[in-house]
Amino acid sequence: MPGDADATLLSVFRHIVDHGPLTRPELGTGVGLARATTSGAVNDLMRRGLVAELVPAPQGGPQGRRGRPTALLDLDDERHAVAGLEIGIDRILSAVYSLRGRELLRTERSVEPESVNPRSLLRRAQTALREVLDAAEDDRRTLLGVGVSVPGLVDASTGTVKYVPSLGWRDVALRAGVDEALGGRTPVLVDGDANFAALAERRARLREGLEAASLIYLTGTYGISAGVIADGRLWRGGRGMAGEVGHLVVDPDGPACVCGRRGCFETRAGLSAITTEALEPAAHRRRAGAGRAVLSAAVDELVARARTGDERVCGVLAEAGRWIGRGAAALTAVLDPRVVVLGGHYARLAPWLLEPAREAFAGAQLVPGTDIPTLEVSAGADWAPTEGAALAVLMSFADGSRPLPAAD
Asked: Which InterPro entries match (predicted)?
């Protein structure tokens, strides 16, 4: 456990991560510390290259005495960088960000169907990982770490991928593989896409002044997983692997699932099920070929057809929306969040999914009324897991999991 001084430093740092930019008085009020204590912690964080003072304040910002702009505190935007990598069945996304979230690099690579085994995907990811390192070094930054996102159950404490149905992975030591690919040059974190996306959603909402202490983020990419924020922190459950909600049985007489059961949530509201049902079988087979790595292209086609008013596609999306609403309501009955956020490809399909989902969600509440959780769409969409993976690196310092960078 950190000592009192360390705890104070981390409390101040975390508050700036979550709520910056803000004034020194706002920071002191937010963390409940005396002015001198807050100032000492801020100065320490500045020496470490983690926090900077912004002067003058943005137009319309707080004003000091005699109308002079009041300095704002935020994360340092110059000295360090954090990176995120998302590995999926049809693409690899990578990005590098300044601590303040400014994008320094963004790349997207398609993945062929035959490349979904761990070794092949890691080989394809190596190029992206090298670019991540180069981007930080070219900008003369210290890369504080890389977060790696995968669509499934992950033991984040060991970096082991326990199960990814869409990739067919079981017990894959992913962190060790990525660490080897990076040559041990920077720390590596591994987690599920929903958990990382939930972290990104939480901070985006905090900085917009929205509810973020209690939320569920539902992915809409390769399967359905949930990232759960409770009391302002990511909730992992007793074994660290909470959130694999796609394989909750919602329809016992429903279709067979890849996990071997029938009627799982994913068979009714997962993107693979939606695209298979909505697109004519022959056209879907032509696009899919022999592999599974076609989801993004299939969603592109769904959106194009839905915009033309295609009755088949719109009908399938509406029905999927109703299943999403029912499933989300079941989760709220157990976890009682203030908001459920739909992310990933669900955000792109929201014009046709959201209203049926909201109707079913409201109708399935145990206690109907006005004070029920809200069902919303993420603004982060496709890149939320990548952004959240990078943010998780930063949060690993703020929560004390890793020592802060040394001061000058």
From this structure: ROK
